[in-house]
Amino acid sequence: MSEHIVSSYDQDLEDLRRQIAEMGGVAEKMMADATVALVRRDTGLAEKVIASDKRLDVLQREIEERSVLLIARRQPLAIDLRETISGIRVSGDLERIGDLAKNIAKRVVAIADQTQPQKIVLGVEHMSDLVQEQLKDVLDAYASRNLDAAHDVWERDGQIDALYNSLFRELLTYMMEDPRNISFCTHLLFCAKNVERIGDHTTNIAETIHYLVTGETLAGERPKNDASNYATVTPGA
Amino acid sequence: MSEHIVSSYDQDLEDLRRQIAEMGGVAEKMMADATVALVRRDTGLAEKVIASDKRLDVLQREIEERSVLLIARRQPLAIDLRETISGIRVSGDLERIGDLAKNIAKRVVAIADQTQPQKIVLGVEHMSDLVQEQLKDVLDAYASRNLDAAHDVWERDGQIDALYNSLFRELLTYMMEDPRNISFCTHLLFCAKNVERIGDHTTNIAETIHYLVTGETLAGERPKNDASNYATVTPGA
């Protein structure tokens, strides 16, 4: 970190970092709670997740406004400019992660009184556990400016996509086996898709860390393995 | 628009406006083409939509970088600062709209060889037509700084959500009627969800216009009518 003559500038950057850390904490908790609520069909916990989203929206707006004022007032260069831009980007991703966790929580409310076998939910839980680990790792990497750790998260996105793809087929198969599973499994499909997209936002944050540390855009295609957009399943096949 | 002593500053803002108009044009075309491709199961057109998305990504990155440099170099105040921030926000929404249209196009490829009744697709087409109109109106409102037109778009988001909600139930019913519809209808469900989310981004742009023109955040809850997160359908009910 470079040193500044104007110490209140350091304070501004410090505030920005603190607010992003707070957003990260809220987003992590929302995702963990949404997953527990889904597994236990706990509508009370789901409602708490839905309520938490407001805080994330407020924080994102604040970060965006403060960052822009910071840029306008201080005219930061190089690493400091990148840090401010990165703050805007990361807060955008964390806000979206909160939205997606909130959407999972809303679906928990929808399916709360359904009694489908728990096994179906466990695939989504497993996928969510992996993505939560990714999110934790990428937030740590952001706080410590750890490029290797960020690259590691970036590489792992393909695993999540492959898992989503297999879960997509599995859920379609359950739906074909018994029409009573359709409504439930449709909500689970959207939950799984939300988890997969949270994984994408985690990968975005990894790319932002790369930009923050190196000043360059991460080259190359993402290690995508999501073929579910192209997948179909045939009944009885 | 305020007048500037430094005329190259006006040029910078003009460039920003032009790039956003270009992004808007690309996003509109992607959405229109993705919808036609879906209705006609035209995989060639779908592939074109998928390819267009790269241009949108490049433009968004450019707008973001140029806007931030503009803020750092020129220290704009009031309306000019808001215009630059608005440019960043709108380009982010247009980039997401392109992603969602691309996702519809990918699903067209998945369901191209399926022969389900065309009627099922028409509901998604109708919803897409409405959202395309919203997108056109909001881009016009942005270009002309027309606050009334922006508010009108903002108010109409509830209609789209209500339509999505009824389509969601309809698609679930088709799935329950015949398991051979499940794979196809699942892709259509995701297409409809994508269209609904494009509607959300259109509403975001309307909110940005409000901020751009008035300097204030649009107060009040969005006119949401999307109950589908909470919806379930029972077979034979």
Word description of this protein:
Chains A, B: Keywords: Cytoplasm, Phosphate transport, Transport. Chains A, B: Pfam families: PhoU (PF01895). Chains A, B: It comes from Methylobacterium gnaphalii. The structure is a homodimer. The termini of chain A are far apart. Chain A is globular and about 65 Å long. The first copy, chain A, has 6 helices and no strands. The model of chain A has no long low-confidence stretch (mean pLDDT about 90). Chain A has about 240 residues and is mainly α. Chain A has one domain: Up-down Bundle (Methane Monooxygenase Hydroxylase, Chain G, domain 1), CATH 1.20.58.220. Helix content of chain A is about 80%, strand content about 0%. The interface of A and B includes residues 68, 84, 85 and 190 of A.
Short description:
2 copies of one chain form a homodimer. Chain A has 237 residues and is an all-alpha fold.
- Going by CATH, what is the homologous superfamily of chain A? Phosphate transport system protein phou homolog 2, domain 2
Shape of chain A: globular
Helix content of chain A: over 70%
Series of H and E elements of chain A: HHHHHH
